[in-house]
Structure formats: C-alpha cells, structure tokens
Amino acid sequence: MAEGALDPQDLGGRLVGGGADDVERAAEAALRPKRLDEFVGQKVVRDQLSLVLQASLARDAAPDHVLLSGPPGLGKTTLAMIIAAELGTSLRVTSGPAIQHAGDLAAVLSSLEEGEVLFIDEIHRLARPAEELLYVAMEDFRVDVIVGKGAGASAIPLALPPFTVVGATTRSGLLPAPLRDRFGFTGHLDFYSAPELERVILRSAGLLGVEVQHDAAHEIAGRSRGTPRIANRLLRRVRDWAQVRGDGTLDLRAARAALEVYEVDPIGLDRLDRAVLSALCRRFGGGPVGLSTLAMTVGEEPDTVETVAEPYLVREGLVARTPRGRVATTTAWQHLGLEPPAGTWAAGLPDEGTGSRSRTLFDEV
Ligand SMILES: Nc1ncnc2c1ncn2[C@@H]1O[C@H](COP(=O)(O)OP(=O)(O)OP(=O)(O)O)[C@@H](O)[C@H]1O
Ligand SMILES: [Mg+2]
Question: Is this entry keyworded DNA-binding (predicted)?
Fold first, then answer.
C-alpha cells in the first residue's frame, strides 16, 4: 500500500461515517425521538410538517405524500416513524433496493390499510417499472394488476384505500421529476448546528441513563460533523472510555481522551480525512490534483475518497473541487499546522474565474 495508506478494514466501522450498520441501527432505536416535539432542530421542516399533520388530522383524511431528503444520519427514518405516530396510524417499511420487481411493490400496496403510512427508504433506488406503478398508486390510489403474459396480458385495476407515502432519499437529485412531483410536501434536512447536537447528546445521555457534563457534550457536538447519528455514536464511545478507563464521569477529560483513542480530531476528521488533507498539502503542494491520483496516494478507491471523505472536507471549506482537480484551502493547511503557500485558495470561495463552484456529494449533479 502507498505511504500513509489506510487499512480498508478501517472503513467498515468508521466512527465518523454518516451511515449505520444493523448493529448500530438496533442501538439507535432506543434513542429515536418518538414525537415531533422531541425531535431536536430542523425547525423549518418540523413546523411545516406539523402543519401538514395537523391539517390532516383536522380533516380526518390521509395527508399528502411526504418526501424527506438529506444526508445520512440526519433523521429521515426517525421523522417517518414520527409521522405515523402523530397520525396515530401504523408504519409499513420498505426500501428501493428491497423492491426488485413491480410485483413486489404491487403486493405491498394492495395490502395497505386505510390511512397507513408506507415508508420507502432510499426511494431513488426503485427500479423503473416499480416507480411507474408507484406514480399511479400515489396519484390515483390504484394498482394495475397484470394478468397473463405477452400479447394476451391485461391489466386489472385494483382500487387502494387512501394512504400516505413517505419517501426518504440521500440523493434527491436522482429522483425522476414525475416521482418528485407526486409528493405534496418535501422536507430537506440540513446538517445540525453544534448547540442542536448538544441537545441531542444531552437527551440521548438521559435515555442511556448516564450523566454527561455540559462541556463534554459541547466537545462531542463539535466533533460530530453536524450529524445526530455521529453524535450518538461518539457519546457511546465516550461512555465506554469513562467506564473502562475513567471514573464513570462523562466529563471533558473523558470526551477528549476517548476521541483521541478513536482518532477523531477536534473538528471531527478521522484518519482517512486527514490522510487526504495531508497528501494534498504535503505531497502535492496543495493541488490541484486529480481524484484518482489523490486516492492512489492514500491507498483508497477513488469512490471511497469521493463519497466518504470529500463531502465533509468540501463542506467545511478544507478542500475545493475545481475543474482541474482538488485543492487544499488555507484552512486545510492551518488545520495540519502548516503555513499555506502564497496564492492558496481561501476557504469556501467559489472559483469565479471558471464560473464553477465547489459542490458536495449531496448537491444535485
Ligand atoms: N432531530 C433529532 N433529534 C434527536 N435525535 C435524532 C434526530 N435526528 C436523528 N436523530 C438520531 O440519529 C439517529 C439516526 O437518525 P435516522 O436513522 O433517522 O437517520 P436517517 O436520515 O434515516 O439516516 P439514513 O440516511 O442512514 O437512513 C437516530 O438514532 C436518531 O435517534
Ligand atoms: Mg434512514
């Protein structure tokens, strides 16, 4: 492996990754807010959703279909569950990748009961035939069941009771317009502020039955990359440290020591992020350098660098993507404790010369 390369295994349990595996999802279930007023932050989406739900309850009719978009770990699944709970109805869960054939979706749809909420996670990954079936179901509350094959096949319309689709996507730009248009309400979840994450941490600590001091919560929040899932995960690691190496108190010392053990730095960068920054500055003098060269230098696949490390580095203004490649900004040099060379990009400034701008993974490409 190249110098400074990372063991690919390290990425599996990446402490600051936005995604979650099955084990983590089980741990998360206990920490999920159950009602809208417990849901921290996202004031705009919360207010809008609250109106949609209250109006639906007042009319005693299923609300419009809801699309929730935003990066992993910001609360899309949590909100879907809250929608069903606030409506006092049950939630049926499926996902784009789980629906292989249109028939699978037809089976789910035809078993829905009146007023139920159907949650379709990763809705941008639905197969095309299933998507087309969904258009009709969402608009006309009908599925066309196909009987027979080839020229003799015929469609038998089956009426569905009113229901509400809640779709979740990390890539709303990949949703075809006809599907996007069928959602009456779209909520876009944004990264959380540090004070909001502190509230998430204090709330979770309460549910875990541990006491976390305010300065420790503040420290953890600052390293959580704007993401409640990461905040909860770091909190659990700090709790481990406090129990095993400390005196059980979740104080600032425990937070700092635990996060040092896990190599999460003060702004939430992990080894891969720092390896990318270090290669950019130390090896390539700040760039511009192409993605594949950069990836090779840190011993990773280009895709990993682009989807795992880069979005946060770009969002934090440490790296900019330019038509000629990646460049380190002054902030990146300073973060590594290095003096930026003359002419280094200032953080976050769009490249006006070429008319392009830095963009993140979640921008619509
Ligand atoms: N606003 C919030 N307040 C408190 N906790 C939250 C909030 N949003 C998310 N969480 C916590 O973060 C965890 C992850 O949230 P959730 O599973 O809803 O994210 P997601 O957007 O569905 O992610 P993915 O795209 O990976 O499916 C949950 O355990 C939940 O407890
Ligand atoms: Mg989810």
Answer: yes
- Residue 141 assigned ligand-binding role: yes
- CATH number for the region 270-365 comes to 1.10.10.10
**Where in the chain are the domains?**
22-188, 194-261, 270-365
Protein residue whose Cα sits closest to atom 31 of ligand 1: 32
How many angstroms separate the CA atoms of 163 and 143, rounded? 13
* pTM for this entry: 0.85
- Tell me how far the alpha carbon of residue 22 lies from the centroid of ligand 2, in angstroms: 12
For ligand 1, atom 12, which residue shows the shortest CA distance? 229
Q: Choose the CATH number for 194-261 among 2.170.130.10, 3.40.50.2300, 1.20.1440.230, 1.10.8.60.
A: 1.10.8.60
The answer to whether residues 229 and 76 touch, using CB atoms and an 8 Å cutoff, is no
**Catalytic site residues?**
76-77, 121, 170, 229
User: Considering every ligand atom, which ligand is closest to the CA of 170?
Assistant: 1
pLDDT at 343: 79
Atom number in ligand 1 closest to CA 81: 18
Q: For 94-147, how does the pLDDT look when each residue is reduced to its tens digit (9 = 90+)?
A: 999 999 888 899 999 999 999 999 999 999 999 999 999 999 999 999 998 878
Overall average pLDDT of the 199-214 stretch: 95
For the chain, how far is it from start to end, CA to CA, in angstroms? 32
**8 to 3, 18, 271, 305: CA distances (angstroms):** 14, 17, 12, 12
- Residue 196 has a pLDDT of 97
